[in-house]
């Protein structure tokens, strides 16, 4: 997944990349990635 740095991801990028993608790109832990992912899902609805 060719994602930008975590600070510049759109919620669509985050949802496309998934939680694992977030962890890989930004180096954050899975729990934090899950929070960000869930927030992105809410925003995109």
TrEMBL record:
User: What GO MF terms are annotated?
Assistant: nucleotide binding
Report what the protein is called: Helix-hairpin-helix DNA-binding motif class 1 domain-containing protein
Task: Read off the lineage from the record.
Answer: unclassified sequences, metagenomes, ecological metagenomes
